[in-house]
Design brief:
single chain, alpha+beta, 14% strand, five-stranded mixed β-sheet
Length: 310
């Protein structure tokens, strides 16, 4: 998304002379082996990574890929509990405080209103109608958090049989790249998707497209998701710049600048939501999955889904 460039421009304007270089990856399954191989060879090319949490806790934390994050955060306005939903410390979702969850969003589905009538899909059970079979549903690769975490919520609320009917019997279209899924939705190649459409739809709307895309809430699949995990890499090549960037990103100014990336809504209460439709509502019933103690249930779900889709 062009939003990352806008965010980086804001940082560079705030700190003249500082230059940020970004490398983006469509999936954790691409970046994880790259980091593992490089660090095994003694190559440390990254300072900071902003990425989803679960896959990194499972695959990179055990091999010591990260440095402790908490000690480098020093700004009083960042550390102040009143600025964060549920307080600042809640953002550390692993016991060693290696990662900080600075943003989240509720798991919403999206529909093409040219193909789905108002109120036609109000429940996961509605998606089991044969009319939505044979590729009418678009889903992110089952190894991605936006599918296996949603299916974990569906399993808890409706049982494994419903998960099987949805991901096997309905024969959804799977893809690893959520931007491509978003484009297929607005072009009518699929009718409904669990992809994070909000992260990409503005790019299309700037081109006059995407007015036929609408988010919907399916209560049985509600989970609080995040792509907003902040990590400090071990042996960061530019440790002072990394510290500066981390502290800036967690300020109100930094979080406001980060909104165009579309990653999610900030946990800071003084930052207006990027996407009001995906706000994690206070007091709402959500499966919060970006926690270390949720790794095993999620691993079990990934295995279950992979076995189903052999």
């Amino acid at each position: 998304s062009e939003g990352f460039r806008k965010a980086f421009d804001a940082f560079e304007k705030t700190f003249p002379g500082g230059t940020l270089e970004r490398q983006g990856y469509a999936s954790s399954s691409l970046v994880i082996p790259k980091i593992q191989q490089e660090q095994k060879a003694g190559i440390y090319g990254y300072d900071v990574i902003q990425h989803s949490i679960q896959s990194f806790l499972t695959n990179l934390k055990p091999v010591g890929a990260f440095a402790p994050l908490a000690p480098v955060i020093f700004r009083p306005d960042v550390l102040d509990d009143k600025n964060w939903a549920d307080g600042f410390q809640t953002g550390f979702v692993d016991g060693d405080k290696l990662v900080y969850m600075f943003g989240w969003y509720s798991s919403k589905w999206a529909i093409n209103t040219d193909l789905v009538k108002e109120g036609e899909i109000k429940s996961i059970k509605d998606l089991l109608d044969p009319k939505w079979g044979n590729g009418k549903i678009g889903m992110v690769d089952v190894r991605s958090g936006s599918t296996f975490t949603i299916m974990l919520a569906v399993k808890q609320n409706l049982g494994e049989e419903t998960v099987k009917k949805l991901v096997v019997d309905q024969a959804p279209l799977f893809h690893r790249d959520e931007r491509i899924i978003t484009e297929r939705l607005l072009r009518g190649q699929i009718a409904v998707t669990n992809a994070r459409v909000h992260a990409f739809i503005q790019d299309f709307r700037d081109q006059g497209l995407g007015k036929n895309v609408k988010s919907i809430d399916l209560p049985e699949s509600r989970s609080a998701l995040t792509g907003s995990g902040l990590w400090l890499m071990k042996n960061a090549p530019h440790p002072n710049a990394a510290k500066l960037f981390i502290n800036w990103l967690l300020t109100k100014e930094g979080q406001d600048a980060w909104k165009p990336t579309g990653i999610g809504n900030s946990r800071r209460v003084d930052v207006t939501p990027f996407d009001p439709e995906s706000v994690v509502e206070k007091g709402g019933k959500y499966l919060i999955v970006a926690r270390e103690d949720m790794l095993k249930p999620q691993d079990d779900m990934v295995k279950y889904l992979s076995d189903l889709l052999k």
